[in-house]
Records
---
Amino acid sequence: MTTAQLGGHAALVQQLHERGLLDDTWRAVWDAVPREPFIPARAWRQDADHCALLTSPERLALIHSDEPVVIQLDDGTEGGPGIATSSNSQPSMVAHSLRLLGVENGARVLEIGTASGYVAALLSERLGAELVFSVELDPALAARAKAALHAAGYRPNLCCGDGEEGWPEAAPFDAVIVTCALRHIPRAYVDQVQPGGIIVAPLAREFWSGTLVQLTVQCDGTATGRFHGDASYMPMRAHRAVEGAPVDSRTARTRRAVLAMPAILHLGFALYAGTRLPGVRLWHSAGPAGTQVWVQHPDGSAATAVAGDVWEYGPCDLWAEIERTYRDYVALGSPDPDQFGLTVSADGDHMWLRSPEHVIAPTLDPLGSR
Ligand SMILES: C[S@@+](CC[C@H](N)C(=O)[O-])C[C@H]1O[C@@H](n2cnc3c(N)ncnc32)[C@H](O)[C@@H]1O
C-alpha cells in the first residue's frame, strides 16, 4: 500500500519509516500506539506568530501530520497572550530522539516532560511500562497524561514535579530523554544515569534556537557527545529566555556590514559563536528589506544588521565582535553542527569542536569585559 492509500496514523508511521527514522522494532511500536487518544479535544496549531485553535476536522489532520500539536497555552492560565507552553512534539523529532536514545530490551528510561503522555506510551510499548519513568511539572497536564495512558492500557511510573532534578529515588537509569529545551544539562541527569548510559536532550541558548545533543555518561562522572541537527522544543520552565535590558538609542552609530547576512544564521556558526560570546542573545525577523538580525549583550551593547547596514548601540561594538568571531569560525573550516560536541562535568558544560580535548574558550565574559 502507498502512504497516500494508508491514511491517518498508519500513513504518518509509514512516512517516518520511509524517511529512515524508524527501524522495524520502532515501526511496530508506533503502529501499535495511535497519537490521537493522547491529544485533548482543545488543541492548537502553532502558526508563525500565534497559536490557532483547531476545529474538529483540522485537529485530526494535524494529528496525522508530521507537526507538533499544542496542548496548553500560557501555563494553563486563561486570558494570557496565547503562548504555547506544552505540546505533543513533532513526530519526526520524537522518532529521531528515540533513535538517538538507542534503548535495548530491559533498559530503564526516564523521560522529562510527560505533556500528552505520548512518548511515555511509545516507551511503555517498547520496553514495558514498569521500566518507564516520566516527570511533568504541570499538575493539570500530569493528571491528563495519566488518564490518557491508563485509558490506552499503559501504567508507567509517573511523577508530578520538577524534572530538572531528575527522579533520584528511581535512579539509576540506562537513559534519559528530555522533551523540553534546556539551557544547560542539569547535573542530576549525569548522576542518575549509569556509566555507558545515554542522555538525549534539546538544548537552546541565547545565541541559538535549538539542537539535539546525545551524551554518553562516562565512568569518571562526566558525560560527553555530539550535536545532532536542529530541534525546536518548548523550554523547561526554569530555563526560559529572559528579556535583555532596553537599548539606549542615543548611542547609535551606523556603518556597512562586512558579514553577509545568511551566514550568521547557520547552526554551526551559532554553536561556535554562542560559546565564544556567552550572554550574547541573537534573534532575527523577516522584514521588507530582508532578514534583520539583532544581537544583544547584558552590558547594554546591542547591534542590528539588515541589507548590509549595521547599527551598533551601547558600550561595546557588538557587531564587530560578531564579525571577528565569524572570521575565526571560517579559519576553522566553517564546521558543520555535527562537528561540535559537549562535555558535562562537575564544573559545568564545555562545548568542543571535533574532539573533547578541543574545548572552545569564551572571548567575552558575561559582563562584557575582555
Ligand atoms: C514539548 S512538551 C513534551 C512532549 C511530551 N514528551 C509528549 O510526548 O507529549 C514539554 C513539556 O515539558 C514540561 N516541563 C517544563 N518544565 C518542566 C520541568 N521543570 N519538569 C518537568 N516537566 C517540565 C512542560 O510543562 C511541557 O508539558
Note: The chain has two domains: 3-238, 249-331.
---
Amino acid sequence: MATADRGAAPKKPVRVITITSGKGGVGKSNLTLALALALSSLGRRVLVWDADLGLANIDLLLGLKPTANIHDLLDGTKTLSEIIAQGPGGLKILPAASGIMELGALSESQKQRLLSEFDDWDEALDFLLIDTSAGLGTNVIYFNLAAQESIVVVSGEPTSITDAYALIKVLSTCYQQNNFYILPNMVANEKEAKNVFGLLSSVADRHLSVSLRLLGFVPQDPAVVTAVRTQTPFFLAAPTSEASRRVLEIAQRILANPPDLMAEGGLSFFLNRLAGLGVTVE
Ligand SMILES: Nc1ncnc2c1ncn2[C@@H]1O[C@H](COP(=O)(O)OP(=O)(O)O)[C@@H](O)[C@H]1O
Ligand SMILES: [Mg+2]
C-alpha cells in the first residue's frame, strides 16, 4: 500500500463525501464500499459510515457482524473506537444503526459526545464516505448538507433519473446545496452513462442553478451480483472486472480533484454542521 504522502506531509482536511440517490437499489452501498477499497488501495485512510437504514447494509456486504453501533456511542456506553469495525484492506466501518437515529433530534449532550468522540480522528483519516439512505428523508438531507461533496448514484431507469432530479432539486432550491457529482451505475456502457447524465443535466440546467459533474460510470457487471451473494466486495473478489476498473478510475479522479474550498472541509467542520444544522426539514 502506498504511504508516500503520509508522515511529515502537511495535514490535509479529511474529505467527507456522501453517496446518495433518489431511488433505492441503484448500487449506493456496493459503490461506497468499492470506492472506499479503491481509495484504500491508493494509500488513503478511509472510514465508511453506514448511514443507510435499508436492507443491503455495508456489514452484510462484508459478512461482518458488528455488535455495537452509533446508538451505543450516543448513549455513552461505548467509545468511537469500540464501535468501529475493521473491514478488509485497512477499511474502517461505522456500522448501521438498528432503529432510526434522527440527527435532528439529538440532544445537546449527544451532539457534544459525537463531536468529542471524533476529535482525534482528524489525524487518522483521509476520507469519510457516507452511504446514505435513498430519497428525501431528514437524515439524507442532514448528511448531504453537512458533507462537502455529494455523489448522486443513478441507474439508467427513468424512475431513478426522475428521483435523482427530485433530490437535487430539493437540496438546491430549499438548502442551497448546488454541487453534485453524478455517477451512473448498472449502465450498458459509457454511451448510456453519458445519455443518463445528459438527461439529468439538461433538465437541471433549465430549471435549477446547480453544477452537475459526471464522475465516471460503473457498468452492469455480473461480478457485482456474485460478490453480493458471497459477501465479498467485488473490488476484492474481482479486481480485474470492468466494474472494479471503473471504480479505480473514479477513485483516481476524486484524488485528482480536491474540492475548491478546502477551508470549508474537514471532519470537525462536517460534524459541527451535522450536529448544529439549524435546518428545518419538511
Ligand atoms: N454495477 C452493478 N452491476 C450489477 N449489479 C449491480 C451493480 N450495482 C448494484 N447491483 C445490484 O443491485 C443491488 C442493489 O445494490 P445496493 O448497493 O445494495 O444498492 P443501494 O445501496 O443503492 O440500495 C445489488 O445487490 C446488486 O445485485
Ligand atoms: Mg444500500
Note: Strands lie at 15-21, 46-51, 85-86, 92-94, 127-134, 149-154, 179-187, 211-214, 218-219.
